[in-house]
User: What shape does this take?
Amino acid sequence: MDRLVPTPSLGVIPERDSGKPLILDIHGLGIDFGGLHAVEDFTLLIGRTEIAGLIGPNGAGKTTVFNLITNVYQPTRGVILFDGIDTRGKRPDEVSRMGIARTFQNIRLFKDMTVLDNVLVGMHNQIPYSMLSAFLHLPSYHRKEKEAREKAMDLLGIFDMQHMAKWQAGSLPYGAQRRLEIVRALATDPKLLLLDEPAAGMNPAETAELMENIRNIRDRFQIAVLLIEHDMSLVMGICEGIAVLNYGKIIAKGSPEDIKNNPTVIEAYLGKQED
Amino acid sequence: MEQLKKKFHLGKTNREKIFTFGIVLLFFAVIEILRGTGNLSNLLKGQLVPICAYVVMALSLNLTVGILGELSLGHAGFVSVGAFTGIVTATLLKPVVPQTWLVLLISIVAGGLTAGIIGFLIGIPVLRLRGDYLAIVTLAFGEIVKSLITNLYIGVDAKGLHFSFINDNLNLLEGGKKIIAGPMGASGFPKISTFLAGILLILFVLYFLYRLLGSKMGRAIKAMRDNSIAAEAVGIHLTRFKLTAFTMSAFIAGMAGTLFALNFASLSATKFNVDMSILLLVFVVLGGLGNLRGSIIAAGVLTVLPEMLRSLRDYRMLAYSIVLIAIMLLTNNQRLMQWWTQTKKDAKKWFAKIRKAKDGGEA
Assistant: This one.
């Protein structure tokens, strides 16, 4: 794991990513729901190939941050620069096409479709045939569909799920559904992968395997990963930079070591010790 | 041998498609044989084109309700637009184009296109709504189309088409002809729809829908139905695909409308009322949401059924409703479904056993 280095602006990123343009540069982000400041003054930098973690107690606003990054919510204040481009005013599907992919805390698969079709929907914008060739079944349709299927099977191979390709997504066991969501997100060919509690409901062995998989995905596709997770073994095990959110505000940022020993973080999680 | 087997081994979806096309062709063959041998009752003869038209309407509504997953209660509106566009087109073309089939073809396409355009325009505001709201608005749309056409006068003379609204002042020249006469409806248009044309339209629509479902666009549409938030998150432009599917659905409904209209001697807009929209919805729900073959069978059977029950006189609609309820209950009965799958399994085992015994005997 690389040492974290400071960037010209506020924040830290892994040393190998310094000097390259940031993948995500969030400044002063905030959103109000009615009178509630759900997220306030949120600032975060993520390097091109960094695995970063976003942690915090329940209700801290972590998923809200994901919804802001993917433009499901429009921010009240602040700027999000993705790969140097301002994402304000873009629709969620446009943000996806720019290269941000996500999974959901409460799994959102296309339940009535097959596992393979779920991945193929993810690849939708990378399958370049016209609707005319689809209706007439021209050679280009068959060729591109076959290529897409092969690529989809290849992606399913990351989690050894090829044999489930024909299964109905809704019938998969829970863990496999979580993994399929990651595969579907990868199918959009992202530069940044947002994982919302990927290890939820997994046992320690499965979590360890997932950690290995996330690292492999980063290495293979050379993408950045930002994950929300409550499982500290996973967060401390693979995240290079960690941001801690409490009541919609960042209370600490740094390497796993910094975070572990930060008194503010300990207080947020465990409460203050009475003397 | 093994390779040959593999080459001709069809996937499950392909087998299903061929089976569906087979049902339509079989129906056509049976009717033609009956007609040839003079065994076709007059009652059924008159129902042939409507059956085909209703099947196509059911398929079109299945695209909106079953595949796209948006409830529409005003589908008769699109059928109506297609029907009256087809009537006008056919009346205009009849004296100019000698080939009847060409007149029919152009009319059907014109009916479909007009309905498609209306569908597109209606879809822009309407598809922003969800669930109950969408149902209410589409319901209103059907009624609006009905009252608009009920107040519409269209006539043709040497100078061309004349339109008039609410008041019958078309000012037609000598020799002019009224095509649509407001509340009186349309009459005197060519009755050119044929059973063959109906079957061909069903086959075309089936082909179109299967190809759509097998494409990336079909996948995107189904994905939106399953989970629109996730679909948007993987880069599917929701409005665009919803609008496309809705427009296609309206286009198909319009074609069915023209086929339907050109089977009668006269037609008024009140025929395309809420009852018809609900009837189409019944076809789709009974046949199974997203199940094309189911829509075809349900539309076919339920169109013929009221005619078959004619002998019951006053109790006809009562019997019809009882049959409907019975089908609903039976097709949703868990125990019955279990029994059916078990029977299928047993039958398969039994066949396998016989085959094994036969192979063993040969060896």
User: Anything to note?
Assistant: Chain A touches chain B at residues 70, 72, 91-93, 96-97, 101-102, 104, 108-113, 117-118, 120-122, 124-125, 127, 129, 131, 134-135, 137, 141, 148, 184-185, 187-188 (CB under 8 Å). Chain A is about 35% helix and 25% strand. Chain A has two domains: 4-107+188-270, 110-171.
